[in-house]
Amino acid sequence: MRRGQGEEGARTGRPRDGRVDASILAATREVLAETGYVRLTVDAVAARAGVGKAAIYRRHATKQEMVFAATVHTMALEAPADTGSFVTDLAALIDDILATLGNPVALVTVPGLLADVIADADLTARFRGTFMERQRDLVEEVLDRAVGRGELDERPELDLVHAMLVGPVFAWLFMMGRRDGDVFARELASRLAVALTGGGSGFPS
Amino acid sequence: MRRGQGEEGARTGRPRDGRVDASILAATREVLAETGYVRLTVDAVAARAGVGKAAIYRRHATKQEMVFAATVHTMALEAPADTGSFVTDLAALIDDILATLGNPVALVTVPGLLADVIADADLTARFRGTFMERQRDLVEEVLDRAVGRGELDERPELDLVHAMLVGPVFAWLFMMGRRDGDVFARELASRLAVALTGGGSGFPS
Amino acid sequence: MRRGQGEEGARTGRPRDGRVDASILAATREVLAETGYVRLTVDAVAARAGVGKAAIYRRHATKQEMVFAATVHTMALEAPADTGSFVTDLAALIDDILATLGNPVALVTVPGLLADVIADADLTARFRGTFMERQRDLVEEVLDRAVGRGELDERPELDLVHAMLVGPVFAWLFMMGRRDGDVFARELASRLAVALTGGGSGFPS
Amino acid sequence: MRRGQGEEGARTGRPRDGRVDASILAATREVLAETGYVRLTVDAVAARAGVGKAAIYRRHATKQEMVFAATVHTMALEAPADTGSFVTDLAALIDDILATLGNPVALVTVPGLLADVIADADLTARFRGTFMERQRDLVEEVLDRAVGRGELDERPELDLVHAMLVGPVFAWLFMMGRRDGDVFARELASRLAVALTGGGSGFPS
DNA sequence: GTTTAAGCGAGACGGTACGTCCTGTCTTAAC
DNA sequence: GTTAAGACAGGACGTACCGTCTCGCTTAAAC
């Protein structure tokens, strides 16, 4: 019987060893860093973690879920501090997204994992309900602040803005293969601020 | 010898049968449409095409290259007609990209293929040298026209604009899973026109 | 690790399932009986045995070794009872060899398997070290008995006698394609007794 | 259309090139000598012969027939001269058979070819009708001479004697893997003479 | 303290796809 | 119509990975 991690039941018997959970996730990230998502195998993760495959499948229904747990769940973006202006708020958010998708493990994981997530309805729901939802909330927060400051008249369509933020970062990293993100992030934030406020500023000079 | 289409040599012997090339690519697209990229198998393509596996591997070194040839090579965007204004040019280009990435076959192919392309240096080079390069040229064309019309003072960084065009479309389709592209495309074009011209216009009302 | 039956090590983990060993060998014999050695495929054996191909290749490095294990290893001749005279001992031994090489499975297996065994140094060594060696021991036993009885003055060269026993049976079955072995076996025994004792008897009348 | 080598037809057009026939058979023997029957491929023979595969298949229906033609047809035993006594006639015949089966090409060809011949009814008929029949005739000749000389009272069953001659040679070479044939041949002839004459002689001392 | 139930590492299991290789047929251009 | 070259359909090979299951053992809570 498979048992989700948070459920009840399993009242007797030997409890799960928390160190096993941790070493599986750590090994997953190590193997990802070494071989990339496409070439990662569960056996390699088990061997690296010093763990049996059963211990992995007791915790994660599929390889995809394992990688999902090892990467997406740690991609929790923190709420960006209020930097005082829309454009700098945007820049901070973009930096966050760039850090999330552009770190060495994510670089070799995100496209493959995304493909498998999309091919699985269950994972898609979880992906959208956690990672995307969280990101969307941050976008909303930043937009609401700008409205509050009077920088925006009204909040634009959330998904559109979301796509305009995360999409270019993804394209920059995975379609163009560029690794020089800093200038890009700054410039993107500036352009998006213009796009959304309908003209004017950009970064304060 | 592998993949000899463009090479010289092989001057004698039975020439490749062009109908085999075509039926492999057609079968690939059919199987993709039915099963998606992740569940496509070479045997299924061979059976569907009425072809031996050797005929496939004589043309395509791996399954990935086969799918690449069957999809990316047919994604050749046509040069967008001059619609008279920057914003409508942008809208036309976005519509093109949306049609390329959002048609039924692409929807079940692009994420998986992209993942495998990125994991393979050779395919990455070909992907960038053909599909991305072509797209980039179109972006350049549209920007140059706008400069010529006086709508832009100078041409912004090409890759940045490219990422701001294709990225949101990708995110909309594959991260958010949305299939209602028309309004999105119109709105995106409008916002990007603002972002790049530094304010003002948007669609003519 | 390949073929670990007799080796130490591999002390942990799930042990090999003896029923799988048995069903592979049984299925091999069934498929042999139906299709013959040349047309036997590993997939057919796996399907018939209800077993994955990996389970087969975990036990047998090649198709040849699998068939070898399924046939030669079961061809263990039993030690012939002392029948009281050289000629009847010989007849019994020849009957045994005839039964070993002439049963329905062996008839469609032996020539092809022998060819592949000879083409593989490893299998040749195993074939000689088990099947041939065992047979040779029986020949020796029968000869020694005859010496003990005074029917032979001294033991003739063992390999020569061995070849004169098994060779004609092989030729009869596989070169001449004859299936009427009983009279042949009796006559052969009689002639060989004469050849080895240097004249005289033959079967008691 | 396939066309047996000896048939008429093919009245017009370019005549077959006799050098092609010869080079195919020569190449077959060369490749056999190098790789053995089991690992011989038709492509290798074609390449070695500097010939297209079609030229081979126009002459030989299958790989087996090609090897058959290249080897068995050249194994034509010559009629043994009358050496004056049964035992020396037998020795000469055995030497012939040993030379036929024990030469370098035959050593790596006979078992595999025999296996394929047996698996094919057509080839079996040809094999028996030519090679075996011819051999059998020689056995008959030698026996008849012995009867004529008064060394034998009556001619024993031909197939039995045939099996007792060729079988041990085959076993010696291919089952026991022995390559020291001379003493073996002499001893075998002597023993068989005893077996068939019912005692007595053997080689004249 | 014993019992019990589940966890554990190891690795065998059924299944499926891969990419390679070989056979016997077919197709081209050259002769 | 034959030739050399080589593409063709078909099908088996042996490898690799997935997710499940089984072995003997360990570990903590329940009794």
Report on the structure:
Four copies of one chain form a homotetramer. Chain A is elongated. In chain A, helix 1 runs antiparallel to helix 2 and helix 5 (86-102) packs across helix 9 (158-175). The first copy, chain A, has helices at residues 18-39, 42-49, 53-59, 63-71, 86-102, 104-107, 110-118, 121-149, 158-175, 181-197. Chain A has two domains: 18-61, Arc Repressor Mutant, subunit A; 75-197, Tetracycline Repressor, domain 2 (Orthogonal Bundle). Chain A is mainly alpha-helical and 205 residues long. The longest helix of chain A is centred in the middle third of the chain and has 29 residues, at 121-149. Helices cover 68% and strands 0% of the residues of chain A. Residues 1-10 and 200-205 of chain A have low confidence and may be disordered. Chains A and B meet through helix 1, helix 7, helix 8, helix 9 and helix 10 of A and helix 1, helix 7, helix 8, helix 9 and helix 10 of B. The structure holds a DNA duplex (31 and 31 nucleotides).
SSE blueprint and pairings:
The structure is a homotetramer of 205-residue chains.
Chain A: H1 18-39, H2 42-49, H3 53-59, H4 63-71, H5 86-102, H6 104-107, H7 110-118, H8 121-149, H9 158-175, H10 181-197
Chain A binds a DNA duplex (31 and 31 nucleotides) through residues 10-17, 20, 41-43, 46, 50-55, 57-58, 61-63.
Quick summary:
Four copies of one chain form a homotetramer. The first copy, chain A, folds into two domains: 18-61, Orthogonal Bundle (Arc Repressor Mutant, subunit A); 75-197, Tetracycline Repressor, domain 2 (Orthogonal Bundle). Chain A contains ten helices and no strands.
